[in-house]
Amino acid sequence: xxEEKRVPDRQVRAAQTGTTVRVYQACSPAVADAALGKQTFGxxxxxxxxxxxxxxxxxxxxxxxxxxxERILAVDLTREGFERALSQVGGGRVLVQWDAERDLDHTxxxxxxxxxxxxxxxxxxxxxxxxTAITDxxxxxxxxxxxxATGQLHKAVxxxxxxxxxxxxxxxxxxxxxxx
Length: 180
Known about the structure:
With 180 residues, the chain is of the alpha+beta class. The chain has seven helices and six strands; from the N terminus they run E-H-E-H-E-H-E-E-H-E-H-H-H. Helix 3 runs antiparallel to helix 4.
């Protein structure tokens, strides 16, 4: 008998290796060029939002069409840094929002993707310690958008990064309310 596997209502999903986890950050062309050149960011003001979901990053930035979000960078972080950021939720330095995950056409799905907001000291650690690599994925995002516009979903899907569930320690999953 076929047993249906239920996707949790809230689940951290991300492209990852044994030592890194990928998040996406939308930014202006000037910020993107500087970050790509230095492989880190300069001074970041306010809250810096990171999204492990490629599809949510595409949705949130309008496929890189919103002012100030024309470029989408894939930022590889150390797993230790990623989990350290999440462990600071509730202290005012790191915010977590759960928003509906999106399909390639930006339709809301029935489970949530995490968005992580860094402020103050957490942003400093992000910029100075946690980043291992930065890659511009704007061209891929725009290719996907173009394929969808011409009815080539089968080709667009092949360009989306594989983002399996990220296994969080139980106490950390509970702290960010990812147990639903």
